Amino acid sequence: MELPRHIAIIMDGNGRWAKKRLLPRSAGHREGMKRMISLSEHAFDLGVKYVTLYALSCENLSRPQEELDGLFSLFRKYFSENIARLLQKGIRLKIIGDRSLLPPDIAALSRKGEEETAAGERGTLLLAIGYGARQELLAAVNAAVRGGRELSQAEFAALLSTDGIPDPDLLIRTGKEKRLSNFLLWQSAYTELYFSDKMFPAFTNADLDRAIENYAGRERRYGKI
Ligand code: FPP
């Protein structure tokens, strides 16, 4: 079975998962964090080399402060408790997104996590935090304009936050919605899309296996015949 080398996940539905259980939204995010750790470890164990998780978009940053504070606490917990595990498993951490939009201590913790895991060779975990594809593309366009000459696709891609990372083969979105929500718009030009009605905290490792199986059955032609 052909395995995707790079899986990207839009982890949607934490809030609705919690609401249905009469729990605060923060409980959905907490459960989502557990799922995210389990799913990424499962993917790396299968042999997937890159996993990108959309944890916070630029647009999410205008959610109520109370919700953001809950998410930021989870990010702090994640970076404080999980770096050792990534290190032990040989996984390199890479943040994509605008760190200046985050509380400074989280920006620093995430940078420390990247530095500590930099030698990891088994796989790369990309966390999209404060990420927006249009923002990323516009920054690249502005850098290109400053350079004052036309660029090739490869030169342009090198100006994106995913420089050096192959494009996602499979993009999964949980939570029923069928849209890309400003995620990896350049990088997903030929990505296979998979939508699940399950809310993210309910999306199991077996669901990931099913998505990979579904991917393996597709024919990728990249516009050719
Ligand atoms: C979308 O669900 C999810 C988020 C905005 C946050 C994702 C965060 C995590 C999975 C956990 C923590 C992450 C890290 C990196 C430690 P939603 O809130 O939009 O759900 P809804 O659409 O049902 O309201």
Explain what you see.
The longest helix has 25 residues, at about 65-90. This protein has helices at about 15-20, 25-45, 65-90, 105-115, 135-145, 155, 205-215, and strands at about 5-10, 50-55, 90-95, 125-130, 170-175, 190-195. The chain is globular. The model has no long low-confidence stretch (mean pLDDT about 95). By secondary structure, the protein is an alpha/beta fold. It has a domain at about 5-70 and about 135-215: 3-Layer(aba) Sandwich (Undecaprenyl pyrophosphate synthetase), CATH 3.40.1180. Farnesyl diphosphate binds near residues 74 and 127.
Break the fold down into its secondary structure elements and pairings.
Blueprint: E1 6-10, H1 14-20, H2 25-46, E2 50-57, H3 65-89, E3 91-96, H4 104-117, E4 123-131, H5 133-147, H6 153-157, E5 170-173, E6 192-195, H7 205-216
Parallel strand pairs: 1-2, 1-5, 2-4, 3-4, 5-6
Helix pairs in contact: 1-2, 2-3, 3-4
The structure holds farnesyl diphosphate (FPP).
